[in-house]
Amino acid sequence: MSFPELFRCPIGLDLFTDPVALSTGQTYDRVNIEKWLAYGNLTCPVTMQRLSDTSLVPNHTLRHLIEQWLLANSAVFTTVPMKSTDVTLSALKHNLQFRESTTVTKLETLRIIKLLSSESSARQASLVREGLFELLLQVLFQFPMAEDAEIVELALDGLLNLSPSSDLESVNMLRDESNLVQLVFLLEEGNSRVKTRLCCLLEAIASCSLARELCLVLGRREKLLQVLVSLLLDKSEFRGLTEAALRAICSLCSLEANRNTAIREGAMDGLVGYLSSAIYASRSRNPNASLALATLEQLLALEVGKRRMSKMENGVMVLVKMVFRVPCDKGCSEHAVGALLLLCNDSAKARTDAINAGVLTQLLLLLQSQSGEQVKSKARALLKLLRAKWATDQGGL
């Protein structure tokens, strides 16, 4: 079964899932054109016209045509009569569950599920009720990636689209040892797209209150945390993967019981490394700096976290540099000052390192800015804490 050329993205050559138009009138799949623009390209990939406007406009007409075409042609996947939406969903399930289904059939079925699952919350709810979320998890953990990585990618796309409409109880199958092993394997050996989607799935799991026990299981999985940290520190990886790995780590650390293991497996090193690259970068290059600092502040509330930070050559310096950035990021400032308060309260060395890194100037700039009272209150507390040390070294303020 071949798709009309009109339905294929000119960049990825795959079926459109979220078609958007540029100012040049050319349509691309959103994920592909966003990646193109993220790499610094300011031209239209097809026409090579320079873009004065990089805004993306959803192409609802094309998306509707693709959906209608797929549903009209879905009968080629199964012998089940296509007489209603419910029957169509049953046919999709049949194609994934039927052992004799070919790889091509599974691929086309997963493409339809991906498209339907991105349509509306009502459609997502109907797919979840039919058990598609759980079935996609089974595909993810039972299908050998070496046979066809695209099947794994499409299963993950469907899972991420459906996760807001699911209670995520189905993901408890991850507590099975073989599935945990497969998860870590996919994070290590998958391509960048698979790794990024898996990190997003981990973030969704860790953010769901009903999946708290599973989050604890994942947080105790040392190898899982090691791989996530390596993805965070690997600058050769796609930028979107770095951000996804960061959010996954921070979500797992949101549970206090996971923090000791996270520190032991290098989470703090990963967070400081991420922030180090954010110091001189634009906010768009490191959009989650505030989240990274908030997680560091949580980890520094533990003695093991403070000990780990004291062993980092540039840990305090990175925090000082994040106290006040232009333009001022209130979230970054508050968490950076909060983290320094925790460090400097117990450590004379941390106080000395902070002063040598220029924290006093940074705090004074922060106090003169338009930051909120809560941030300024923390800044004044840190200044008070450092005053005695500064007075000794400089002969008084």
UniProtKB/TrEMBL annotation:
<feature type="domain" description="U-box">
    <location>
        <begin position="2"/>
        <end position="76"/>
    </location>
</feature>
<dbReference type="Pfam" id="PF25598">
    <property type="entry name" value="ARM_PUB"/>
</dbReference>
<dbReference type="GO" id="GO:0061630">
    <property type="term" value="F:ubiquitin protein ligase activity"/>
</dbReference>
<dbReference type="InterPro" id="IPR045210">
    <property type="entry name" value="RING-Ubox_PUB"/>
</dbReference>
<dbReference type="InterPro" id="IPR003613">
    <property type="entry name" value="Ubox_domain"/>
</dbReference>
<keyword id="KW-0833">Ubl conjugation pathway</keyword>
<dbReference type="InterPro" id="IPR058678">
    <property type="entry name" value="ARM_PUB"/>
</dbReference>
<dbReference type="GO" id="GO:0016567">
    <property type="term" value="P:protein ubiquitination"/>
</dbReference>
<feature type="repeat" description="ARM">
    <location>
        <begin position="223"/>
        <end position="267"/>
    </location>
</feature>
<dbReference type="Pfam" id="PF04564">
    <property type="entry name" value="U-box"/>
</dbReference>
<comment type="pathway">
    <text>Protein modification; protein ubiquitination.</text>
</comment>
<protein>
    <recommendedName>
        <fullName>U-box domain-containing protein</fullName>
        <ecNumber>2.3.2.27</ecNumber>
    </recommendedName>
</protein>
<keyword id="KW-0808">Transferase</keyword>
<dbReference type="InterPro" id="IPR045185">
    <property type="entry name" value="PUB22/23/24-like"/>
</dbReference>
<dbReference type="InterPro" id="IPR000225">
    <property type="entry name" value="Armadillo"/>
</dbReference>
<comment type="function">
    <text>Functions as an E3 ubiquitin ligase.</text>
</comment>
